[in-house]
């Protein structure tokens, strides 16, 4: 199976490049951000709790997102592979993902990290915030909080995959097509 973790700070292009990858390689897209926003729009108890944290730029508790991903893996048994977009976002999530995949005789193939500087991230998210209505994209302070959460809790996940020799870095600034070409070059070598 081809299982790719698409990694990077908020606004790095994970969601954007996931769409390209699922089309090119016929993979299932698992975005914890999208799943959580689905829970919010359905008004579920989980969604109501998640919204309070997401609106402040904070991460949702590990056990909540691990449970969600586990359920999605179980309900996509025929998949050729998965794109994990926005997950794992903590080392505990990465460890749990390895365990869940190992129980299915499966594993992560690669982590592809999109490298984008903070000035560009803030610019992109504020532009998206104008159209998307996403409350976490509209306020520079909340965006900075999300980047802080990324730096303190999510960036260490890269070391987890480096230790397994599965880490690949791709420059995330440039055209969407150009960045996808660089991502494909990594995937083709796996
Ligand atoms: P996510 O939904 O994962 O959102 P994100 O990281 O902010 O952005 P995304 O990756 O989708 O955007 P993209 O860069 O593609 O998370 C939202 C929140 O959910 C988190 O803050 C957290 O609270 C919670 N959450 C989610 N997963 C969690 C987890 N595992 N554990 C705990 N909490 C979790 O795109 C951004 C913009 O840039 C777009 O408008 C796009 O068009 C533009 N763009 C993309 N590529 C570009 C390029 N090359 N040039 C110019 N613009 C570009």
UniProtKB/TrEMBL annotation:
Cellular localization per UniProt: Cytoplasm
Catalytic reaction equation(s): AMP + ATP = 2 ADP
Keyword Membrane: no
Molecular-function GO term, any one: AMP kinase activity
EC number(s) on file: 2.7.4.3
Pathway: Purine metabolism; AMP biosynthesis via salvage pathway; AMP from ADP: step 1/1
Binding site for AMP: 32, 37, 58-60, 86-89, 93, 134, 146
UniProt region (NMP), positions on chain: 31-60
Primary location group: cytoplasm
The protein's enzyme class: transferase
Record keywords, A-Z: ATP-binding, Cytoplasm, Kinase, Nucleotide biosynthesis, Nucleotide-binding, Transferase
Entry superkingdom: Bacteria
Residue positions binding ATP: 11-16, 128, 174
Assembly: Monomer.
Annotated HAMAP family: Adenylate_kinase_Adk (MF_00235)
NCBIfam families for the chain: PRK00279.1-3, PRK14527.1, PRK14531.1, PRK14532.1
Described purpose of this protein according to its UniProt entry: Catalyzes the reversible transfer of the terminal phosphate group between ATP and AMP. Plays an important role in cellular energy homeostasis and in adenine nucleotide metabolism.
PANTHER family associated with the record: NUCLEOTIDE KINASE
Domain notes from UniProt: Consists of three domains, a large central CORE domain and two small peripheral domains, NMPbind and LID, which undergo movements during catalysis. The LID domain closes over the site of phosphoryl transfer upon ATP binding. Assembling and dissambling the active center during each catalytic cycle provides an effective means to prevent ATP hydrolysis.
Family label: Belongs to the adenylate kinase family.
Protein name: Adenylate kinase
């Amino acid at each position: 199976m081809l299982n790719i973790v698409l990694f990077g700070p908020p606004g790095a292009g994970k969601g954007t490049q996931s769409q390209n990858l699922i089309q090119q390689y016929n993979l299932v897209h698992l975005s914890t951000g999208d799943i959580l926003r689905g829970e919010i729009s359905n008004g579920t108890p989980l969604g109501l709790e998640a919204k309070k944290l997401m609106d402040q730029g904070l991460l949702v508790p590990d056990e909540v997102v691990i449970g969600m991903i586990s359920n999605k893996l179980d309900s996509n048994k025929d998949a050729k592979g998965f794109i994990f977009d926005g997950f794992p976002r903590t080392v505990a999530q990465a460890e749990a993902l390895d365990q869940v995949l190992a129980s299915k005789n499966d594993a992560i193939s690669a982590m592809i990290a999109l490298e984008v500087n903070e000035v560009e991230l803030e610019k992109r998210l504020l532009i998206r915030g104008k159209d998307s209505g996403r409350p976490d994209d509209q306020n520079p302070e909340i965006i900075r909080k999300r980047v802080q959460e990324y730096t303190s809790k999510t960036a260490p996940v890269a070391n987890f995959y480096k230790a397994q020799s599965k880490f690949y870095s791709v420059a995330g600034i440039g055209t969407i097509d150009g960045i996808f070409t660089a991502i494909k070059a990594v995937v083709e070598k796996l």
